[in-house]
Write a structure and sequence with these properties.
With 327 residues, the protein is mainly alpha-helical. The chain has two domains: 107 residues, no CATH class; 191 residues, no CATH class. The protein contains seven helices and nine strands, in the order ααβαβββββααβαββα. It has a three-stranded antiparallel sheet. A two-stranded antiparallel sheet has the order 1-7. Strands 3-4 form a two-stranded antiparallel ribbon. α1 packs parallel to α2, α3 runs antiparallel to α4 and α4 crosses α5. The protein is elongated, with a radius of gyration of 41 Å. The model has no long low-confidence stretch (mean pLDDT 84).
């Protein structure tokens, strides 16, 4: 019994040592973790938390601490490597996605797989005129040709003059940027420049602008021929323009269905039905930027049979409607 009574204090003391040591190890481990993850702004010395630190041999305590610290440092290293691998993986995925998107766009343009009407040859930016949108063409459009236009020659001349003023130019300056040219044999070269007739500057003709020029020329020619008067356009030029319009129609191959919507045989089959179209005004605005725009003035006197155009240099100040080709 006496031995048991004497043993109890020793066991309590040993238990206290273990608890104190455990607390010490945990405290040091937390301090090391904080130091590894959030380095202190200045050095400091660790303060002992208990007198019982000296109850065990110093070399035993240090050995255990070194083992605990080795485990802790290994865990911290693993955590850092995991974070590094995660961040690297995210960067690789992002880079791959961006690269794939750029390659997809470039290959689509190179293969002619962009939207019909966009430039696959690298001259007009692909976003100009995009995205396609539902568009209604009716009598409110300044390009609308009234059905009585050909009733007399004066109306025809007035309509042709209005359309020419709206259109003004089919050309834009190159500014040293040459487009690609897909040859009939499939090979690719740089598209030669078209030289402006007055200043001899390097330009390109935008295809849809040339098509509009052809529409105006056909309108003028037909209006004159209806009244048995020759216009300024040679038959060969009119045939060329008819082919240009035909090519545009066949290239677009518009599959939109149409019908009479205001009663059968009332009006026209195109009335009150929208088209899915690129933005004509956006293309016009791009072309009318003074950086690349060309504007012309007709110097021919009133009633002259032939137009006489000269370039307006420097590029004139345009109204907002003129910039987008609506005035």
């Amino acid at each position: 019994m006496g031995t048991l009574v004497q043993e109890i204090p020793r066991r309590l003391k040993r238990t206290a040592r273990v608890d104190t040591y455990t607390y010490y190890v945990r405290t040091r481990a937390m301090e090391k973790l904080k130091t590894a993850l959030w380095p202190p702004s200045r050095d400091y010395s660790t303060v002992r938390t208990s007198q019982s630190d000296d109850d065990e041999p110093q070399d035993v305590v240090e050995e255990r601490l070194r083992g605990d610290l080795a485990i802790l440092e290994s865990n911290v290293w693993c955590l850092r490597m995991s974070l590094l691998i995660t961040v690297s993986a995210l960067l690789l995925v992002t880079t791959f996605a961006v690269f794939s998107r750029v390659c997809c766009v470039r290959s689509s343009l190179a293969c002619g797989k962009g939207h019909i009407g966009s430039d696959p040859n690298g001259f007009v930016p692909p976003n100009i005129g995009e995205p396609p949108r539902w568009t209604l063409f009716d009598s409110t459009s300044p390009y609308y040709i009234p059905e009585d236009t050909f009733d007399d020659l004066d109306k025809t001349k007035m309509m042709a003059k209005k359309l020419k003023s709206l259109h003004n130019s089919s050309n834009v300056l190159l500014n040293g940027k040459f487009a690609d040219w897909k040859k009939p044999d499939g090979t690719v070269a740089k598209l030669p420049a078209y030289y402006s007739t007055v200043s001899n500057r390097q330009t390109y003709i935008i295809r849809s602008f040339h098509q509009m020029h052809c529409l105006i020329s056909i309108t003028e020619e037909y209006g004159h021929r209806v009244h048995n008067v020759a216009s300024q356009w040679a038959p060969q030029h009119v045939a060329h323009c008819l082919n240009a319009i035909r090519e545009a129609i066949m290239c677009l191959a518009d599959a939109t269905p149409m019908t009479y919507v205001n009663g059968f045989a009332v009006g026209h089959v195109t009335d009150d039905q929208q088209f899915m179209c690129r933005d004509w005004s956006a293309l016009r605005k791009w072309a009318n930027d003074p950086v690349r725009g060309i504007r012309y003035k007709n110097l021919a006197p009133e009633g002259a049979k032939h137009d006489q155009y000269t370039e307006i240099i420097p590029f004139p100040e345009l109204s907002e409607l003129e910039k987008v080709g609506l005035a």
